[in-house]
Structure formats: structure tokens, C-alpha cells
Design a protein that fits this description.
Pathway: Cofactor biosynthesis; ubiquinone biosynthesis. The chain is of the alpha+beta class. Helices cover about 40% and strands about 25% of the residues. The protein binds flavin-adenine dinucleotide (FAD) and 2-acetamido-2-deoxy-beta-D-glucopyranose (2 copies). Flavin-adenine dinucleotide binds next to helix 2, strand 3, strand 12 and helix 12.
């Protein structure tokens, strides 16, 4: 092994490579950190020389364990029991989670804005999660536990504040888009890609992993096509306070024609929202005063869409028009108290300062996740509508699948960068991801329309329960992985 590396180092010297690695991971998001932690935790792959490169700073992730921010950050995800189990059993990192900042919840109530009786409650019994449907957890908490585990093991290099500037194929002077050809074993040089970094270093790697998010430079380098579309919607996120702690541990999601609005529980009276909305509405949501924002969330969870549209119209003209406060309170006062308590989430009382942000929503799926010496994981491979809270979870199952493929390759003494080894990763993860992407896309399309015939059909369908069954089935499929 050592002999081989030394020999290869000599061969690559002409390309001015400062280092050779077995695996270079681009991206220090949840997917990239998971992969590094998983590779270093498996006794079959822990000998591999690994470097992770992250363009941004990981400082706030490093300090999170010792000194977390006072309030919840606004990037919060819902982790499935499968993802938690993976981090527990395979990565051995769950022990580093900040326990005070996670919230187990047992069910979700989803309801339609157009049809009062269209409600689905689904819970852990439908997904065999041992009484737990999912865990709400900040992204940074997940990244922090992964980094702690990586530090504990030692023996790998993390370069943050370091951008990948270019990726070149050693046999060609420029970026090579034709990686579909099998590497030539007879080639005198090494066919491993060379990653050029902003710190001046160049690393040549046996396997290059793109965990570099939606715009994935690694995907572009490898010439893998990605297909999909922008939804023309933004996901507005915010950290909020409820009027008091909701002991029901329920997540709520209301399907509005502008997109679904979800209120998900955090510890005590803290909670988080994801509000998929049109560009125009998301603009309003970011501009209005905190007081108006809070009223808007409460209104959007309960009032008719005609009323909401009227209120949006007022705020579009003037986002500081406080007349909407009375308007909303008056309209909400017409709903029976018992109904409010039973069928709707607790009212929101406060939005945490500076926690509002928005993200463009899109769906995309790479045609494949591998090319010779390249693999894609996480959002680099797929992006999904957040309505089922699955994006990060899909990244976790990618990591599980890739590590399994690499373990098999190592066991059989094969080159872990070869497509022969990598193919089983694709065949084990691509179909399930494709199904899930399709399901969430369908759910988005069924609900996010005010195209009248479809709304009408939805109403009738929901009443006759056929549609409700279809939707329920889709929802269960999207949550039960
Ligand atoms: C509104 C919203 C709500 C969501 N809710 C949920 C949820 O409830 N549950 C869930 O599971 N998922 C959810 N998601 C999805 C989830 O956030 C993403 O799927 C997840 O963060 C993707 O992780 P990743 O590591 O693949 O990519 P990213 O987090 O995008 O990380 C990619 C990293 O690569 C780095 N990088 C990129 N280019 C370079 C370069 N050239 N050089 C060096 N570094 C580079 C970037 O700096 C970045 O840190 C949500 C998403 C949105 C938008
Ligand atoms: C959640 O809310 C409670 C009470 O309002 C507070 O004491 C606690 O620290 C909060 N947690 C976080 C992380 O903000
Ligand atoms: C945390 O939230 C509380 C309650 O909204 C607020 O008073 C406080 O200023 C926040 N702290 C920070 C550091 O933003």
C-alpha cells in the first residue's frame, strides 16, 4: 500500500500535485461531514486517506458544542428514525448531539385550506418508528456532532475556508467532461482527478466525492446531467415562540395554494416554521414587522384563502399597515374557540429577531450519481421540495449506500474509484430517491394551485375521500423510509 502510494506520487509529480489522497470530499454540509465520519468509523474503510474541503468557515460549528447560540437557529430539519439510527449505529456520533436542542415528535396533522374536512393525521404507527415519527434538530447541531466524531477519531484532514477552484483531469490540460470512458490502465500517468484549491494546493484523488450542494462543481466537472425545475416558490423559514408549550408534540402542515405552511415543534414553547410561498408573498413575509408576521402565520393556519388574499393585498401596498392586525383578529374571532383548540396549532406569539430567511425551492435529480472516480451525495445528487422534510435524510441514506459500496470494494481488493465499485451505490439508492422525488413533486402539484378546475376536483376528491386516500398514501410513502 505505502509502496504503491510512493510510486504514484512520483508519477503525479509532473502535474505539480502536492498530495495524493484516497478520498477527497468537496462540501462540509451534513452530507459531506456524514460521509467522512462514516468512512472513518468503519473498520473496513478507516485506513483510507481522506480530505474534506469546505469553501465556508466551520468555526460556528466548532463552537456550537461548547457554546451554542441562545436561540434556535433557523435551519432546522426533521430527521427520520432511520437517519438517527444511522448516526447512532454506523457513525457512532449521536452521543455528541446537544440533547437540550432536539425535539422528538409523534405525529403530523396535514390539512387543506380549500376543504375544511380534508385532514390527515399520521403518526409513528404508520412508519414503524417505535413511537417516534421524527426528530426536529438544527442543521448546525447535526454538523457539530459529526465534526465532534471526526475530531475524536482524528486522522483526517478538514480544510475549511478553502474553495475548490478547479478540477482537472491529468491526461488533459483543461476540465474534462468526458469521464464516461473507463480509465486506461495502460496510461503512464495517474488517471485520478486533480482538485485545485484556493489555498494554492492541488490534491490528486483516487475518488472524488461531490457533497457540494445544488450547484455542485463536482457534478459539472464529471459531466453528469441533472434534470429538474424551479418551483417558482420560496421556502420562508423562521424561529418562533408559541403562546405556551404544546404538550401534544404534533407537527402541523396546512396546504395553501401558495404552498404548504408547516409549524414544527421544538423544545418548550419554541417552534420553527417553513412557509412555501410565491416570490411576491415571500417578499411580504420578509418585509413585514415581527408583529404582523406573527399574525400572518396564525391567519394562514386558520383563515380562508379569500381572506388571506385580501390581507396580502393590503400588505403588498404597505408592509407596515397595522390595520391588518385588527382585521386578522376579527376574522379569527369568528372561529369557535373549541374548534381552534382542537383542530389547529397553538397560536404563535413571537418571531425570533433576524430568524426570517428564504430559500428558492427546486426539484432536481442527477441522471446518475457516479462517473469514473467520482460520486455525488446529498443535494449535489438531488434537491427536493421541503414539504415532507426529506432532503437531508436522503443525503444520509446516500452516505449509507456509498459507504456500503466502498466497504465491499475494499473487501474484494478493488480500486474504490472504479465504476465497478461505485455502480452498486447508484443501484441501491437512485430508484428510491427517484420515487420520493416524484411523490413530493406530485404532492406539491396537487395542492399548490389555484387553477380552478383542479381546486374543484381536489375539493370533490377530498369530500369523496378518494383523493384523501391518494394523498394519504403519498404522504405515508414520503415519510416512511
Ligand atoms: C426551506 C428548507 C427546509 C428544509 N427542511 C428540511 C427538513 O425538514 N428535513 C430534511 O431532511 N431536509 C430539509 N431541507 C433540505 C436540507 O437542508 C438539505 O437537503 C441539506 O442541507 C443538504 O445537505 P448537503 O450537505 O447535501 O448540501 P449543503 O448543505 O448545500 O452543503 C454543500 C456544501 O458544499 C460547499 N461547497 C460548494 N461548492 C464548493 C466549492 N467549490 N468548494 C468548496 N466547498 C464548496 C458549500 O459551502 C456547502 O457548505 C430543507 C431545505 C430547505 C431549503
Ligand atoms: C426554548 O424556550 C424556553 C422557554 O421559553 C427557553 O428557556 C429555552 O432556552 C429555549 N431554547 C432555545 C434553544 O432557545
Ligand atoms: C433570543 O430570543 C429572545 C426572545 O425573543 C430575545 O429577547 C433575545 O434578544 C434573543 N437573543 C439573541 C442573541 O438574539
Amino acid at each position: 500500500m505505502f509502496g504503491a502510494v510512493r510510486r504514484l506520487a512520483t508519477a503525479a509529480a509532473s502535474a505539480q500535485v502536492s498530495r495524493l489522497q484516497d478520498v477527497v470530499i468537496v462540501g462540509g454540509g451534513p452530507a459531506g461531514l456524514s460521509l467522512l465520519a462514516a468512512l472513518k468509523s468503519s473498520h473496513k474503510t478507516r485506513h483510507l486517506k481522506c480530505t474534506l474541503v469546505e469553501g465556508g468557515s466551520l468555526d460556528n460549528i466548532r463552537t456550537f458544542g461548547e457554546d451554542p447560540p441562545e436561540n434556535y437557529t433557523n435551519r432546522v430539519v426533521s430527521l427520520t428514525p432511520q437517519s438517527v439510527e444511522f448516526m447512532q449505529e454506523r457513525i457512532g456520533s449521536w452521543q455528541y448531539i446537544n440533547q437540550d436542542r432536539i425535539k422528538f415528535y409523534s405525529s403530523i396533522v396535514a390539512y387543506d385550506s380549500q376543504e375544511k374536512d380534508a385532514r390527515i393525521q399520521f403518526d409513528a404507527s404508520m412508519t414503524d418508528g417505535n413511537g417516534v415519527l421524527a426528530v426536529m434538530c438544527e442543521n448546525i447541531n447535526i454538523q457539530s456532532l459529526l465534526l465532534s466524531r471526526i475530531d475524536e477519531i482524528g486522522d483526517s484532514t478538514i480544510l475549511d475556508n478553502t474553495k475548490v477552484l478547479d478540477i482537472v483531469h491529468p491526461n488533459k490540460p483543461e476540465i474534462n467532461h468526458d469521464l464516461t470512458a473507463e480509465p486506461q490502465t495502460t496510461s503512464p500517468g495517474l488517471d485520478w482527478p486533480i482538485v485545485q484549491l484556493s489555498n494554492g494546493e492541488s490534491i490528486q484523488t483516487r475518488l472524488l466525492v461531490g457533497a457540494d450542494g445544488y450547484n455542485s462543481p463536482v457534478r459539472k466537472f464529471s459531466g453528469i446531467e441533472s434534470r429538474g425545475w424551479q418551483y417558482g416558490r420560496f421556502g420562508v423559514v423562521a424561529t418562533i415562540k408559541l403562546q405556551y408549550e404544546d404538550y401534544r408534540s404534533i407537527g402541523w402542515q396546512r396546504f395553501l395554494t401558495t404552498g404548504p405552511l408547516a409549524i414544527l415543534p421544538l423544545t418548550e414553547d419554541n417552534a420553527t416554521i417553513v412557509w412555501s410561498s410565491t416570490p411576491e408573498l415571500s417578499d411580504i413575509l420578509l418585509k413585514v414587522t415581527p408583529e404582523i408576521f406573527v399574525h400572518l402565520v396564525n391567519a394562514a393556519m386558520t383563515l380562508d384563502e379569500v381572506d388571506l388574499n385580501y390581507i396580502y393585498g393590503v400588505l403588498k401596498k404597505d408592509p407596515t399597515d397595522t390595520s391588518v392586525l385588527e382585521e386578522i383578529e376579527w376574522r379569527m374571532s369568528k372561529i369557535k374557540l373549541s374548534e381552534l383548540e382542537e383542530k389547529y396549532p397553538l397560536p404563535v406569539s413571537e418571531v425570533i429577531d433576524k430568524s426570517r430567511a428564504r430559500f428558492p425551492l427546486k426539484m432536481s435529480h442527477a441522471d446518475t450519481y457516479v462517473a469514473p472516480r467520482v460520486a455525488l451525495i446529498g443535494d449535489a445528487a438531488h434537491t427536493i421540495h421541503p414539504l415532507a422534510g426529506q432532503g437531508l435524510n436522503m443525503g444520509q441514506s446516500d452516505v449509507a449506500g456509498l459507504v456500503e459500496a466502498l466497504e465491499k470494494g475494499v473487501e474484494r481488493g478493488m480500486d474504490i474509484g472504479s465504476t465497478l465499485v461505485l455502480e452498486s451505490y447508484v443501484s441501491n439508492t437512485w430508484p428510491a430517491n427517484s420515487m420520493l422525488l416524484g411523490v413530493c413533486d406530485k404532492l406539491h402539484k396537487i395542492f399548490s394551485t389555484d387553477f380552478y378546475p383542479l381546486v374543484l376536483l381536489r375539493g370533490i376528491g377530498m369530500k369523496s375521500l378518494n383523493m384523501l386516500d391518494v394523498v394519504k398514501d403519498l404522504m405515508v410513502k414520503s415519510m416512511a423510509r
